[in-house]
Amino acid sequence: MPQMAPISWFLLFIVFSGTLLVFNFLNYYSFLPSSPMTNYQQSIEQKPLNWKW
């Protein structure tokens, strides 16, 4: 069975690591989350808490 030179293993590692990084960056930045609706946040009513001891 032929042996691979250490530089070939290093080059293979660099190629696979670069592929993994590019794949993760593309997946992370391809998703655009929708911005939260400001009307929904303003419509939340808060009841005042009047503590009577």
UniProtKB/TrEMBL annotation:
One Pfam match: ATP-synt_8
Keywords: CF(0), Hydrogen ion transport, Ion transport, Membrane, Mitochondrion, Transmembrane, Transmembrane helix, Transport
Similarity comment: family membership: Belongs to the ATPase protein 8 family.
Main location: mitochondrion
Residue spans crossing the bilayer: 7-29
Highest taxon listed in the record's lineage: Eukaryota
GO MF annotations, alphabetized: proton transmembrane transporter activity
One of the record's GO cellular component terms: mitochondrial membrane
Organism: Neoperla burgeoni
GO annotation (BP), single: proton motive force-driven ATP synthesis
Summary of subunit composition and partner proteins: F-type ATPases have 2 components, CF(1) - the catalytic core - and CF(0) - the membrane proton channel.
Membrane topology annotation: Single-pass membrane protein
Name of this protein: ATP synthase complex subunit 8
Subcellular location(s) per record: Mitochondrion membrane
